[in-house]
From TrEMBL, chain A:
<dbReference type="InterPro" id="IPR003439">
    <property type="entry name" value="ABC_transporter-like_ATP-bd"/>
</dbReference>
<dbReference type="InterPro" id="IPR017871">
    <property type="entry name" value="ABC_transporter-like_CS"/>
</dbReference>
<feature type="domain" description="ABC transporter">
    <location>
        <begin position="3"/>
        <end position="231"/>
    </location>
</feature>
<dbReference type="GO" id="GO:0016887">
    <property type="term" value="F:ATP hydrolysis activity"/>
</dbReference>
<dbReference type="GO" id="GO:0005524">
    <property type="term" value="F:ATP binding"/>
</dbReference>
<keyword id="KW-0547">Nucleotide-binding</keyword>
<dbReference type="Pfam" id="PF00005">
    <property type="entry name" value="ABC_tran"/>
</dbReference>
<dbReference type="InterPro" id="IPR027417">
    <property type="entry name" value="P-loop_NTPase"/>
</dbReference>
<dbReference type="InterPro" id="IPR003593">
    <property type="entry name" value="AAA+_ATPase"/>
</dbReference>
TrEMBL record, chain B:
<feature type="transmembrane region" description="Helical">
    <location>
        <begin position="577"/>
        <end position="599"/>
    </location>
</feature>
<feature type="transmembrane region" description="Helical">
    <location>
        <begin position="12"/>
        <end position="34"/>
    </location>
</feature>
<protein>
    <submittedName>
        <fullName>Uncharacterized protein</fullName>
    </submittedName>
</protein>
<keyword id="KW-0472">Membrane</keyword>
<keyword id="KW-0175">Coiled coil</keyword>
<feature type="transmembrane region" description="Helical">
    <location>
        <begin position="702"/>
        <end position="727"/>
    </location>
</feature>
<feature type="transmembrane region" description="Helical">
    <location>
        <begin position="272"/>
        <end position="304"/>
    </location>
</feature>
<keyword id="KW-0812">Transmembrane</keyword>
<feature type="transmembrane region" description="Helical">
    <location>
        <begin position="182"/>
        <end position="199"/>
    </location>
</feature>
Length: 296, 789
């Protein structure tokens, strides 16, 4: 089971949305990170056969998806970002409609819907109109529809947008449980969503793949580049802001500042600023630090 | 099939659409009814008498019809003239006179139809001889030329009509049906709305990305969508045309439908030998096909173009090009095909059956009907195929960066976006016009305003026509000299009547030859026929004279028709009031409720001017919208009077209009018109205050609209059908102009009360807009708050 993206480019007149992207995805969860305009949406549109690439191909097990047509789409489960669903439909009708679109037989559709409604915990509201759903319910409904056809490739665009922390964790865990023997690609801004469940993280910047690898592997690239500083006043902070990436600032009871900083050559910097331990200490980087490091 | 069901369900769930459709059906039937009653009240009232009379003459030998009709008309005319003269002394004779007038009109109508039948025979003879004449000219003798073939084809096409027996009947029954244009507009409106919901809305909500990524999300989906689109359009088509047909049948009956269409003047130049019943069926089927073709074309546009503005612009360009071709291309120009194979020509379906013309197709004459049928079918097939292909293949980047579209957007943003403004009013204006789509209601108002503008003078009956002719001679201030002129004319007409009587007598006593009698009657009859119109004017003059004597104020003899049209035309006034109120409700009900919908209300209220200046800005916006709507919807009747209703004096006392003869206020017509405008605007402002208060109270547009329907629209609609109900309801009195019998002081009291209601509502709005005075707790809660399932 392999989805191969081979030298993919997409040009909108003068704007290059993605440039020469190559990826090889096998079963497991992939996190797609990047700021707005990095090319994530364009890449997703091409993978979901909603957009034609200017050059390059996307292949499923060696077969070009453009040539596969219906067959490829029957392997696909897509959860788009938007929450504008058919407000007059009940959740159940919406799922039956999606089952019809996915070409499921009646019996199979009924079984899948019953199962997925339970999985996403929508049993109590499934016969109510979508207009009465909260943001989280709509997200869960969209996840359920994406899984209706038991897809091999699942593309989730911002699956936890607008959810409360509990729902986010629920959905994150749920994605983890369904990922066996499937390729799951999650595009998100929320790094915590993928930090613990992604097999690999793909970081995009200006239409190109900037980084790709296991989270630990990526985090090791910024080891010794993240530290926690203790400062006495704002003046010291102001002079640091020119040279460092500030990740967080916390003021304690004694009005001292604890600042999480990111920079390439922290050791030299601390030395030149006459910082001595314990005024600073190196800390374990997170994906958020990685994100800030590359997109500051 | 499953997808078809879901697509259909999506459309069926748009309940508001079906309510609008029901409204349109009723509106169409009502419009048709009032329009026919306005234009053809005589034949509608006298339908059975005319039927009996026509059948009596149909049974008569053809050569006996014309002399008999002429004789009876002369007799009736004389009796009427005598009756008029006598009625001045014996008013109780008026009823008898009315009966005579009705009988005379029935005979005149029948005579007109028999004249047409005779003319048609002459037309066929001329056509045959013209073909022979043309073929004798050398340039038409070339047998492989289009001209030669066309002459032969034309002669053959009409040859079949030589054996037809034309008969009189109720021509309005078919003419009114195919001339009724509102049904076309209704279907076009639904075509746009259905197209938006079926093809565009999903794309706007980005649901298309999800749908297109599924197995059956392409070919099957678009085929289902197209099928549902065609079914929905057909459903609306048959219901709307059905409602018009039912009304036709109710008003004119379905007698005389077996006679040939050539019996009806408006249909007589067609080559096809059809009965009226067959014409009805073919007309409806052709029209349906034409709308299916338009639906296929609009589906193609919806599928091919993502951007709604771009779509409308391209559709407008296509319509403009087609219209220009239809209007400006000369029928005999080399590009004549573009005129005849044209959207507008196809929609004027009756012309396909009743206008004879052959197009030159490789030297062979092809009738318009066949050419357009091929055009229709090809357009449907090509559009459907192209829609399916584009939907399956087209990918979402299309038209995202079209240069001219970017220019259009830039222009729009410059014109409409108040980016550099810090005025609350400007932002509120933008919000209501653009975000809340208020501009659509202004466009709708412009559309209704346009169709309210008369393009030509209205059809008048004989009495009205002659009345206006006499008005041309005698209208103006009622001076001694004018009264004397009118009296002289009366004496002259009585003289003519006596002369006709003497001629009749002389003919009976054989003192005069038939030829001499006929030639003298030919001279006298047109003048005698005008007497009925004159006596209407004479009656009006006598009433005004009495008024002038009792009040001492000089009155003006002026057209009663214009006054009636402007101030008491029940159909026009009702329809205008209903349209205005509907647009007003729809425009104003979003001004406040949209803030509740978007959850902005709390934010606004917590800001400095959110409870004071903001409300004033909203009020200013609503008043300006009211003024716009009012001018657009209510101005056309005034323009119509200026353009098509002569002999109307704006400076005359209001009592000079017969409708206002008992009115006690001393005002001129223009002053009264201005007062009416001010009263109606004041009423509209009060209504806007009520809508504001309801908006703060209900918080949801649908509830506000429901209340407005009950408070304002329902009384207006009921008043249109049953004028005595809600007759003293202020909204009806002001908007439906039921003021001519009003006691001026009572009217002022009523207006004052109305204004007080407005002030109370304004005060209530001020109180209700505060968040802590929420009347319906939870009404403003968004979907997020309903998560506690």
């Amino acid at each position: 089971m392999e989805l191969t993206i081979h030298h993919l480019s997409k040009q909108y007149r003068q704007i290059t949305a993605i440039h020469n992207v190559s990826l090889q995805l096998s079963s497991g969860i992939y996190g797609l990170l990047g700021p707005n305009g990095a090319g994530k949406s364009t890449l997703i549109k091409i993978i979901t056969a909603n957009l034609q690439a200017t050059s390059g191909t996307v292949s499923w097990n060696g077969q070009n998806i453009a040539a596969m047509g219906d067959h490829y789409r029957s392997l696909l489960g897509y959860m788009p970002q938007q929450q504008e669903l058919y407000s007059d439909f009940t959740g159940n009708r919406f799922l039956r409609y999606m089952a019809a679109l996915k070409g499921l037989e009646k019996k199979e559709a009924e079984e899948r819907i019953a199962h997925l409604v339970e999985v996403v915990n929508l049993q109590e509201v499934i016969h109510k109109k979508i207009s009465a759903y909260s943001g989280g319910m709509k997200q869960r409904l969209l996840i359920a529809q994406a899984l209706l056809n038991d897809p091999k490739v699942i593309i989730l665009d911002e699956p936890t947008a607008g959810l409360d922390p509990k729902e986010r964790i629920n959905i994150r865990n749920f994605i983890s449980t369904i990922a066996a023997n499937k390729i799951v690609l999650i595009a998100t801004h929320v790094v915590q969503d993928i930090e613990y469940i992604a097999k690999e993280i793909i970081v995009m910047k200006k239409g190109e793949i900037l980084l790709k690898g296991h989270p630990e592997q990526l985090l090791s690239s910024i080891k010794q580049k993240v530290a926690l500083l203790q400062l006495d006043d704002e003046q010291a902070l102001a002079s640091l802001q020119q040279k460092l990436i500030i990740s967080s600032i916390i003021r304690d009871y004694e009005q001292k500042l604890h600042v999480r900083v990111i920079a390439d050559d922290l050791a030299n910097l601390f030395e030149s600023a006459s910082f001595i331990e314990p005024a600073y200490q190196y800390v374990q980087p997170t994906l958020e630090d990685l994100y800030l490091y590359y997109f500051h | 099939m499953k997808l078809l069901g879901f697509e259909l369900t999506k459309l069926l769930y748009k309940r508001m659409l079906w309510v609008i459709l029901l409204g349109c059906l009723l509106g169409n039937a009502a419009f048709f009814y009032f329009e026919q009653v306005k234009s053809h009240s005589f034949i509608i009232q006298q339908r059975d008498q005319f039927k009996t009379l026509a059948q009596q003459y149909i049974k008569m030998p053809a050569e006996a019809v014309s002399p008999d009709l002429e004789h009876r008309i002369n007799q009736l005319q004389q009796r009427m003239d005598q009756g008029y003269a006598a009625s001045l002394e014996q008013p109780e004779m008026m009823e008898q006179l009315q009966q005579l007038s009705t009988e005379l009109q029935l005979y005149l109508l029948l005579q007109e139809q028999y004249t047409h039948i005779a003319d048609h025979t002459v037309f066929l003879e001329q056509l045959a001889s013209k073909a022979d004449d043309m073929l004798s000219v050398s340039i038409f003798q070339k047998q492989d030329s289009f001209s030669y073939r066309n002459i032969i084809a034309t002669a053959q096409a009409f040859e079949r009509q030589g054996t037809l027996t034309l008969q009189p009947g109720i021509n309005e029954q078919v003419e009114s049906f195919f001339k009724h244009r509102l049904q076309d507009y209704i279907i076009l409106f639904f075509m746009l709305v259905f197209g938006f919901f079926i093809f565009h809305q999903e794309r706007e909500n980005k649901m298309d990305l999800l749908i297109r990524s599924t197995k059956h999300g392409r070919r099957q989906t678009i085929l289902s969508k197209l099928m549902v689109y065609f079914v929905a359009i057909s459903f609306v088509f048959f219901f709307v045309f059905g409602s018009s047909f039912a009304m036709t049948s109710y008003l004119y009956g379905m007698d005389f439908i077996e006679r040939s269409i050539q019996s009806v003047p408006g249909l007589s130049r067609g080559q096809y030998v059809l009965s009226i019943a067959q014409f009805f069926i073919i007309f409806i089927l052709l029209k349906w096909l034409a709308f299916l073709m338009l639906a296929a074309l609009s589906a193609l546009l919806f599928v091919a173009i993502r951007h709604l503005g771009q779509l409308l612009l391209i559709a407008a360009s296509i319509i403009a090009i087609q219209y220009a071709s239809y209007i400006f291309i000369h029928p005999y120009s080399p590009a004549g095909a573009l005129k005849f194979v044209n959207l507008f020509y196809v929609l004027q379906t009756d012309q396909l059956l009743t206008y004879y013309r052959n197009l030159n197709l490789f030297g062979y004459p092809v009738p318009l009907l066949q050419t357009n049928l091929v055009f229709l079918l090809l357009a449907i097939i090509i559009s459907v195929a192209a829609s399916v292909w584009i939907y399956c293949k087209k990918l979402s980047e299309t038209s995202a960066n079209v240069t001219w579209l970017a220019v259009f957007d830039k222009l729009k943003s410059k014109l409409l976006r108040p980016t550099s403004s810090y005025s609350l009013f400007v932002h509120e204006w933008y919000k209501n016009m653009i975000s809340n789509k208020g501009i659509v209601f202004i466009i709708c108002a412009l559309f209704f305003g346009y169709i309210g503008l008369q393009q030509e003078p209205i059809a008048l009956d004989h009495i009205e026509r002659t009345y206006l002719e006499y008005m041309g001679k005698f209208s103006g201030p009622l001076t001694e000299q004018r009264i004397e002129q009118i009296e002289q004319e009366k004496e002259r007409l009585q003289g003519i009547s006596n002369e006709i009587q003497h001629l009749e007598q002389a003919l009976l006593e054989k003192k005069i030859e038939l030829s001499g009698y006929s030639s003298q009657m030919t001279l006298l009859m047109p003048q005698a026929n005008a007497s009925s119109g004159f006596y209407k004017l004479y009656d009006q003059m006598r009433s005004l004279l009495m008024l002038q004597q009792s009040t001492g104020q000089q009155q003006t003899l002026m057209s009663a028709t214009a006054g009636q049209y402007l101030f008491a035309h029940p159909f026009r006034v009702s329809l205008t009031a209903i349209i205005y109120m509907t647009l007003l409700m729809l425009s104003l009900s979003t001004i406040i409720t949209s803030d509740y919908r978007s959850g902005m209300h709390l934010l606004q209220c917590s800001s400095r001017f959110g409870q004071t200046k903001l409300l004033r800005s909203k009020r200013a916006v609503s008043y300006i919208i009211i003024c716009f709507l009012y001018i657009i919807v209510f101005l056309p009747p005034f323009l119509n009077v200026l353009n098509y209703y002569p002999h109307f004096y704006w400076n005359a006392p209001i009592q000079s209009i017969p409708l206002f003869e008992h009115y006690t206020w001393t005002v001129k017509v223009w002053q009264w018109s201005l007062l009416v405008v001010l009263l109606q605007l004041a009423a509209s402002f009060v209504i806007s205050e009520v809508i504001f208060m309801l908006s703060y109270l209900m918080k949801k547009q649908v509830l506000v609209l429901g209340c407005c329907i009950v408070l304002f629209l329902f009384p207006l609609i009921t008043g249109a059908f049953y004028p005595h109900l809600f007759a003293s309801y202020p909204v009806n009195r002001l908007l439906m102009l039921q003021l001519y019998n009003a006691d001026p002081n009572g009217l002022l009291v009523q207006l004052a009360l109305f204004i007080i209601i407005g002030l109370i509502c304004a005060f209530a709005s001020r109180l209700l807009l505060r968040p802590y005075t929420n009347w319906r707790r939870g009404a403003s809660l968004g979907a997020n708050d309903s998560s506690s399932f």
